[in-house]
Amino acid sequence: MLEELKQKVYEANMELPRRGLITYTWGNVSGIDREKGLFVIKPSGVDYDVLKPSDMVVMDLEGNKVEGEMNPSSDTATHVELYNGFKEIGGIVHTHSPHATAWAQAGRALPCYGTTHADYFYGEIPCARNLTAEEIEEGYEKNTGKVIIETFQGKNPVYIPAVLCKNHGPFTWGRDAAEAVHNAVVLEEIARMNFMTELINPQAGPAPQCMQDKHFMRKHGPNAYYGQGK
Amino acid sequence: MLEELKQKVYEANMELPRRGLITYTWGNVSGIDREKGLFVIKPSGVDYDVLKPSDMVVMDLEGNKVEGEMNPSSDTATHVELYNGFKEIGGIVHTHSPHATAWAQAGRALPCYGTTHADYFYGEIPCARNLTAEEIEEGYEKNTGKVIIETFQGKNPVYIPAVLCKNHGPFTWGRDAAEAVHNAVVLEEIARMNFMTELINPQAGPAPQCMQDKHFMRKHGPNAYYGQGK
Amino acid sequence: MLEELKQKVYEANMELPRRGLITYTWGNVSGIDREKGLFVIKPSGVDYDVLKPSDMVVMDLEGNKVEGEMNPSSDTATHVELYNGFKEIGGIVHTHSPHATAWAQAGRALPCYGTTHADYFYGEIPCARNLTAEEIEEGYEKNTGKVIIETFQGKNPVYIPAVLCKNHGPFTWGRDAAEAVHNAVVLEEIARMNFMTELINPQAGPAPQCMQDKHFMRKHGPNAYYGQGK
Amino acid sequence: MLEELKQKVYEANMELPRRGLITYTWGNVSGIDREKGLFVIKPSGVDYDVLKPSDMVVMDLEGNKVEGEMNPSSDTATHVELYNGFKEIGGIVHTHSPHATAWAQAGRALPCYGTTHADYFYGEIPCARNLTAEEIEEGYEKNTGKVIIETFQGKNPVYIPAVLCKNHGPFTWGRDAAEAVHNAVVLEEIARMNFMTELINPQAGPAPQCMQDKHFMRKHGPNAYYGQGK
After folding, report:
1. Beta strands D127-128 and D162-165: pairing type?
2. Smallest Cβ distance to A116: which of B46, B101, B136?
3. What is the overall mean pLDDT for chain D?
4. Does the predicted model carry a pTM greater than 0.90?
């Protein structure tokens, strides 16, 4: 079932090591079929070298395995929460990409220092709080998802398709698995640039709001004119 | 038309990912035929994997598309301004290369800390100011070019073939598209070295003027003796 | 003798340059056959290009060469001490991987800033003290092992399979040579992330203990549920 | 003439881009035949892609070209001075490798923070002073060599086969061209590690002298026991 989606999610997973976002098996990508209410996710702890499209695990939105011989990613319950909480998204990525993870470990939101950021993310990328001991005990992965959703109260997850989980690492999302991976690549790159920006000028401030508006909207707004108008 | 120039501009564009200056489609190179008053530029948002010489778009110096099926780079109006403002240049590059962009985001000119810099750029590489909200509204890309030209009042763009646009990223130029790319590579490398230089010694100062003169002139002056005398 | 172990130790050694942990011959991996009380180690100063499984040297736990035409690694006496002091371990790695070595040179334990660390190492990775002039004189490599063991008094080397030797570099270990290399790769990656973490936020603190417990135990505790339950 | 030496110097030059020490043509390697009093050096500004052994230029120790169609490296006069001043050396390398150059631009000697350094360099690697305007005017490249030699008054260039030239970059040397390149690789690696060391711990101090003695001497002293005793 969902063979085409499995293939796409497989390919999105394979893009992670190709883009240098992954050491060993530290990441997972999923993609959802909204009509069927089912999503496809990488199995847990399987090497990218041997991963096959048919290894992808099919899950429903209550967190039940619907198809697949392997255990799904240990972070599956986080994906479930995000798909339920953010109705517009079609794909989710988690990595431990080094620069984004460093910001998450530092417990800081990623400021919008420039147009590279503003081309993809509208405003700073928030850093979600730590889970409490009770939340960890009760359901670590599920509550990770709930805390991300809490972090986005008053924010638009379509306009800011990424979050840093404190002392952990980033999650990104998008219209589908491929776009979620694309956003993970961009997040890592801007985390790297912003790290250097602050060392070069500790007084650096965010890009002017009008510039952020311009760049985000020329790629994403109703009058977007970047690219070939697809 | 301009098949030879298209081929050269295509090759200069392809050098960007090969040199590690580009993530996804974040860059563009153009080259001009001064006699005809036409320039050739990469189309907007096209993957480097599928880019072909025939995809290059031909533009005139008033910003009209003369030939090409695709939309030109979204930064085309900046290239138009630079070709009109800097009559001596034959090629232009824009990238978001990470170290140069970090300096741009930090809003700082790149000091000349050594001979690697002085071999190519005579004095510090300036950082252009942010555009005002009005300038952005009126014509963002065009006014980006105007602000760069304003930045070079009293400076020689042939001696300093690069600029950092605040909160954005670098533009470089050269006698042709290939040299502009060459300068983009050098800029990224010195931005990286200079970043480290200041962390190693916050009191580091620029290279002595006599040393800057010597290095720039042994490669670029009338009595240049570097290379094989081409 | 020990042909299978030699092959595995050879392969573990070859993984070091593949993972970018090694410049020239700056590293060594060994693996032990606990039943026979013999271990196999890389010869000293041999290029990875020409290294063969049959070059591996067989040593006993008193530091005598049992088989092999070449000199064993100059750090062999350290391996002997660690195998004798840490009875549960089956493989040992020494490298000068750059980020881990930078922490060792800084003389600081590696704090647990996040889950990437906590997935593999339970608590901070200690930095062993310098040897005294007498200890160096008496037996540098052997006493390096003794000082590592001293550093682990009150700590569980199975739960923290790594150490930084001050002004020198890291040693890691594991159930076998392959796992010891895996831990060396992870150590380098977290040393890199943690370096950036402190620069992004000098006040960054360790991950909450409940989070460290959760991550370490979901991979290593009796109720581990990461991976495919092998 | 000197075909074998040309081949070796050619190979040593080609090792520079392979090891990532070089951008474009920013480096040069030479090797000397002490009996004949002639050395072989890379031509100036020739791309590594097209460089051939027969392009190597033969020079005498007074700086005269003895054979070769091309101009020798623009730094040839520095090599002449070093061969005349340091009689024990057989090969010289100049690069702008980024980390070593950052230290040179910072104007600081490279401290010996650990055994990676001490395995190759006995004590800190000095930073040579800037040339005066007069020295630059009179003979920039020649006086660069003279200032390096001045920097080594009271130091042994065989024990410290490297120098940083302020606001410029490193020179390394060795028994032959290949060893000089080897030392350039090591210098870049320790410059990188030491950069991070100081950021991790601004109070980091050099490795204890007894440790530096031990490591340098176990590889280089009369009782060296590292490697296979070649």
Report:
1. parallel
2. B101
3. 96
4. yes
